[in-house]
Predict the 3D structure of the following.
Amino acid sequence: MSGHDIDPDALLENTQGASNSVIGYQSGDSFLHRLNPVTKLVLTVGITAIAFVLPGFRGPLVLLAAVVVVAVAAGVGPSVLRVGVVIGTPLAVILLVVQGFFYPGNETPLVAVDGLPVVGTVTLWLEGVRFALGILFQLLVAIIAMLATIATSHPRKLTAALIEKGMPRKLAYVFMAALQFVPRIRGRSQGIIDAQQARGLDTRGSVRRRVRALVDLLSPLLISELIAAQTRGLALEARGFGRSDPQTVIYTIPDGTVDRVLRWGTLLAVIVVIAGVVLGWG
């Protein structure tokens, strides 16, 4: 069988299953899954740039809604939104408190509470709330878009696509390893905790017990990560990863007309939006 007869999706699914982490790869056959991973990265960067360029909070809110709809349509909505809520909730609280009460451009009072000890009157301002919402929606666009890209892009497929586009192999591997770091640590930590609980270690209860359980977790986790890093390094060297001469690939990642149109369209959209904001269109 020649390299052209190999289905890269089937090969990758057989060599590494889908991650059970909420931010790991989830297999599927949606439009987003079928896109070239580089296209998804370009879309993520472009949408994020547009969100940060648009003034106010309505534009980023519309983009956020669009990104959420795409994630749901791709079948990764629940996991992506779960992580987005976990990250976005503390961000929302911090931004609304800081900007809502202390934003320099505050002029219109929204809510005022009188008679508080020490501080007296506390006022929540409309301008600060709008500014906080704008920042929050901008950050959430970047977070949700990146999570959707991670959830629909197989790590090895992403690495291969980056190398095909000219990224150095070592840099592509570092990028993939960074994306896999949290899911890998989470899965390994859960395995260690399960093993400790099976041996009678109490990881629940008082704060003191939880702190001790955390200390007992760190040592085997660190050792296992060091061993895994050494094993991966030896495996890469055995496969000639560090060689500088051209390498033969067993499969290529499809990069069709739709991918190219989306990438160039994203670039054009970013330029148009920046020009519109600078020139004051609309």
Q: What stands out?
A: Residues 16 and 156 are 9 Å apart (CA to CA). The chain has one domain: 3-279.
